Amino acid sequence: MRTPIMPTGHMPLPRGVALLNNSLLNKGTSYTERERDALGLRGLLPPRVFSIEEQVVRAVGNFRRKSNDLEKYIFLTTLQARNETLFFRVLLENLEEMMPVIYTPTVGQACLEFGSIFRRPRGLWISSGDRGRIREVLRHWPMTDVRLIVVTDGERILGLGDLGADGMGIPIGKLSLYTACAGVHPSYCLPITLDVGTDNEKVLAEPMYIGLRQRRLRGKEYDEFLDEFVWAVQDVFPGCLIQFEDFGNHNAFSLLARYRDQVCTFNDDIQGTASVALGGLLAALRITGQPLAAQRLLFYGAGEAGLGIADLFARAAMREGVREDEARKLCWFIDSKGLIVRSRWESLVPQKRPYAHEAEFLPDIAAGVRGLKPTALIGVAGAGRAFTPEILGEMARINERPIIFAMSNPTSKSECTAEEAYVGTGGRAIFASGSPFPPVAFGGRTLVPGQCNNVYVFPGIGLGVLACQARRVTEDMFLAAAQILAGETADEELASGRVYPSLCRVREVSVRIAAAVARVAYDADLADMPAADDIAGWIRESVFEPEYREYV
Fold first, then answer.
1. CA distances (Å), origin 279, targets 168, 294, 456
2. Residue 11 has what pLDDT?
3. CB-based contacts of 464, cutoff 8 Å, min separation 6
4. Using CA atoms, how far apart are residues 412 and 384, in angstroms rounded to an integer?
5. What's the pLDDT at 55?
6. Which of 283, 382, 390, 421 is the most buried (most CB within 10 A)?
7. What is the torsion angle, in degrees rounded to the nearest 10, for the CA atoms of residue 338, residue 342, residue 346 and residue 351?
């Protein structure tokens, strides 16, 4: 990886108020006496010099005094806009406490109220009115060495639906996690929202809505707009990794298919979710002792997340010697019309057809569990409380250790809570969820639910791609990430019910995933950076650490 560079490598160091207003360089009250004299800061700051450790104490105290999670979110984003080094130091030292605030589930509420809580612009909004000049808009970004873009068009924000331009909270939050959880330098990161309108009547009627008041672009116009954006990025930021985030199902699959073999890109909702879910399933099998090929997965929901998980699970089974057709038969789907079976072939979109097996049609999830007897039940439909006590009880009846992944988020969309899963299965469930749940006391034990959070994989995958300057992102990279993640959960964590490691170790997990991803790139001859003898050590030494530098 090229050594992380500060913005001062691109432009002269600003002075005075301009320096204090530069979030990447600002140190607030930590500027030394020499720096205050040399950089025109004398009198612009209170006289006492504070260490970054003292600043962290102040910031955390202010954070904890906020009355609700949305106010805490506003506080953290305001801190980030003022002093990014301090923001990331605070976040990294308090990750388990602050992760649910800076991202899921609070980011969902923040997006719902984005227009009302808007303080200061961050990232780029590129609207359909910018067609024909997207390259010019991209060049307005002050940093010229952008290596990672997270982009959304706001059509499918978490489980909340079409929020249009208010979805900007997602790319901002994802890129914050790239830096906090994997050490990607913040100057390399650019959040982008493509404002192509919204079909959400409530959003369009909102007085403080920040986006275009128009219906969504569709069809040829949309495709041409996205095409101009993707190729403009290649011109302005050559080699930049583009992460597609929270696009509608049809566009998510079609954009991935169109660009995955042409540019460096991936879709986190499809591929990142698949990797973290597979990592959790592989860890769960460390508890059950069963082989991969003996599993039968039943998905509730057949959108981006579910189909992505099934594709990667089948790939993993094929690696263990299972034929492709048999590997796909390990995965079954219930969508809004019932069980996906061969008799529904003509009405199915192409992505669902590989999982349309010869079987009797079953109308709903309860019938699916009774008829198919799955070893794992995976919720990705955004249907809150769909896993009823009866369904959970049936899973416990047919499995000694039923695997229950209630992956939909935010919390209101979760198919069941951790407590419901444990109570409904007599404490035998191996449970993970998309949104965080607290530990549950049951039967004299404390059971700790796992959070199936993409943050375990996408920062490490992106770090690995950037480190070796990979030209493409491949499915084998996501498989490698899942396998590394599954091995990172300690035996004592498995014993408590967790299938994911503690977030306090996420940076080290990200480095190991990054190294595995880089190795895949080297093996496939997709990397432009010469390999180091110790890939993990080389990456570990290159990541961004939230520490102040001396300017004079």
1. 28, 17, 9
2. 55
3. 470, 477, 513, 514, 515, 516, 517, 518, 521, 539
4. 6
5. 98
6. 421
7. 80
* 376 strand-pairing partners: 297, 403
The domain spans of the chain are 99-263, 271-452, 456-542
Helix axes 475-488, 458-468, angle to 10 degrees: 120
How far is Cα 174 from Cα 192, in angstroms, rounded to an integer?
11
Q: Are 427 and 442 in contact (CB under 8 A)?
A: yes
Torsion angle, alpha carbons of 199, 200, 202, 208, to 10: -80
- Active-site choice (103, 188, 422, 456): 103
pLDDT in tens, 92-111: 999 999 999 999 889 999 99
CB 283 within 8 A of CB 376: no
Active site annotation includes 174 = yes
Distance CA 179, CA 23 (A): 15
> Which residue type is seen at 87?
F
* Residue carrying structure tokens 């800076």: 102
Strands 331-335 and 440-442, bridge-based pairing: unpaired
CA distances from 524 to 157, 470, 521, 527 (A): 34, 10, 5, 8
Q: Answer yes or no: CATH 3.40.50.10380 is held by domain 99-263.
A: yes
**In whole angstroms, what is the distance from residue 56 CA to residue 20 CA?**
18
Annotated catalytic residue within 174, 329, 352, 413: 174
Answer for the pair 23, 189: CB distance below 8 angstroms, yes or no.
no
Question: How far is residue 58 CA from its own chain's centroid?
Answer: 29
Calpha distance 400→405 (Å, rounded): 16
For domain 271-452, give the CATH number: 3.40.50.720
**Which phi and psi (to 5°) does residue 405 adopt?**
-115, 105
Residue 86, both tokens: 């301090």
413 is catalytic: no
Topology match between the domains 99-263 and 271-452: yes
CA 81 to CA 23: how far, in whole Å? 6
Q: Express each pLDDT in 437-447 by its tens digit.
A: 999 999 999 99
Per-position DSSP letters for 177-235, written without gaps between them: HHHHHH---GGGEEEEEEE-----HHHHH-TT--S-SSPPP-HHHHHHHHHHHHHHHHH
> What is the 3-state secondary structure of 359-375?
CCCCCCHHHHHHHHCCC
CATH superfamily of 456-542: Malic enzyme, N-terminal domain (3.40.50.10380)
Residue 227, C-beta contacts closer than 8 angstroms, at least 6 positions apart: none
Torsion over CA: 324, 326, 332, 335 (sign)? positive
- Give the predicted TM-score (pTM) of the model: 0.95
